[in-house]
Please model this.
Amino acid sequence: MLNRQRRTLIGVASKDAHPGIRSVGSGTQEDPWVLKTPSLTSDYLMYRDETGDPPKIVCVVGKTTLGYQLRAIEDLHAKLKEHGDWMPLGSADEQKPAKEGTVEAWGRSTENPVGGWYGTKKGLRGRFGMYMPPLLEALGLAEVEHNARNNRMRAI
Model:
């Protein structure tokens, strides 16, 4: 799907988004957000699917489709505001442990607002710290570092 829908990355999803982040799309299945991973090495698509229970964000990475609860956008933004400083991303697959104190660990913690995983597809619930931060940045809700490794984010 990504190759079929590839576009020139111009503009941003929000006028408040970080100027270094390029994204196109309105976040629908027909016009998904085209985003880059925090290291800026890979493109992927995201769009809202509000028909599910719970409503979700669909994330298409190559031929793999992941999902995260739609409320993760607001919940992560609130967590970052509460945290008040840079928070490491710490991306990890579902089968691997997440480093404590990271966005990834929070996205699967029993202490978060949903009491566990924001990921909706068993076996593919990880990588929250890889794919959600660029969306929050494109929406103008967060700032994300774009180093080759060990990136962090904070609320705007």
